[in-house]
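#struct-pred
JK: can someone run the complex with 5'-deoxyadenosine? inputs below
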Amino acid sequence: MAEAKKVFIKTYGCQMNVYDSGRMADVLAREGYEAAEAPEGADLVVLNTCHIREKAAEKVYSEIGRLRILKERARSAGRDLRIAVAGCVAQAEGAEIVARAPAVDAVVGPQSYHRLPAILERARTGGPAVETEFPPEDKFDHMPPVGTAAPKRGPTAFLTVQEGCDKFCTFCVVPYTRGAEASRPVARIVEEAERLAAQGVRELTLLGQNVNAYRGAGPDGAWSLARLLSRLAALPGIERLRYTTSHPRDMGEDLIAAHRDLDRLMPYLHLPVQSGSDRILKAMNRRHRRDDYLRIVDRLRAARPDLALSGDFIVGFPGETDSDFEDTMRLVETVGYAQAYSFKYSPRPGTPAADSAAHVPEPVKAERLARLQDLLDCQQKAFNAGMAGRTVPVLLEKAGRRPGQLIGRSPWLQAVQVDAPPALLGAIVDVRIVEAGSNSLFGALPGNRATMRAIA
Ligand code: 5AD
Ligand code: SF4
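RT: done, structure tokens with the ligand placed:
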């Protein structure tokens, strides 16, 4: 038998890229590729890239520079190392990547991952191959089942249910790199969730660029995300559900009600607002006002009082004044976030905001970001500190750094470190929180009945 080929996949950016990398591994496994732990010695390296901000995209070119040296070394040793660029930089830059970095053999956009073997074959015989079309067929229909490369071993998994975005926020490349909103059919999602549950998955995070805009074909017409969640909540084995990322405009009544009705839906929601200023929200084409967002948060909290919120913020969007920025600070104070991501505005070629004449100077952006991050850090610390002394259910996910220690997640997505036997991996146990750090909680097993049941 021929020696197995080895592929090393490096993932940048969001959770959808993490999911996609797994699915590319599934596609390549069918072609006889095994996973390599490092690019050294691999026959193929796939860079699954992110284009959301300038820094993210630049990282890719420096990585290709390092791989070029490995490729030359491999060639002098009589071996072949092929380099493929996938993900959103691939989609946005296409053939320019090969022009700028001739070491690259293949460029493949996110909608063409099912065609990866054919693209690589074309590159082998005819030089660099570039594929960034949005093919008419659904890539998921042409992929082997999830877990073909490596059946899931940990108890948590991502599952893409929706891709693309029709919102066209003026700062964002996603509508161009991931295309129009498209939802996977209910039956295919249920099938994949069942397969993951059989592989030991207990917690599923449904993914989509606009996941709450989900409208997938169901047995009786199009289903909303709320309906999909309640279907998945009925699956044996799946004990926790999450979804990300949501847009405020798609936070429908039934989805808010799902937070009240579904115990398995975790009380944590990533709901980006980007800015607290109506003027900037309008310039961003967010299509909602500050008050609309605050009202949605109130309704969500009425439905699920212990709901923790997470968000994304951009500071220094073109035209943002001091007073606009203060509006953002006040919104953050009003909402109170458990966790959040914040960024300096980064002009992205091809997006409307990049052409603005009113760019905010870099030092102003830096100062605003520092102030916002201080506030968000304080809120995160306060949220975590509020857990001390409480007993919370924790899904134990993996071994900790110290022997005898496991790491898990609380319902609010906090990392929890706890001394516990490895037999408890994959179980949800009650943990008493003894200490709260800013990034993780430290807990102890109270030796209660839940623990004993899980051990038995
Ligand atoms: N500049 C800065 N941040 C951006 N994001 C998206 N595009 C940009 C940009 N051009 C942020 C938004 C989004 C998150 C994924 O990345 O906050 O919600
Ligand atoms: Fe980008 Fe806006 Fe779409 Fe989110 S909703 S992916 S920020 S365009």
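RT: quick notes.
Confidence is low (pLDDT under 50) at residues 448-456.
The longest strand covers residues 391-399.
JK: thanks, will look after standup
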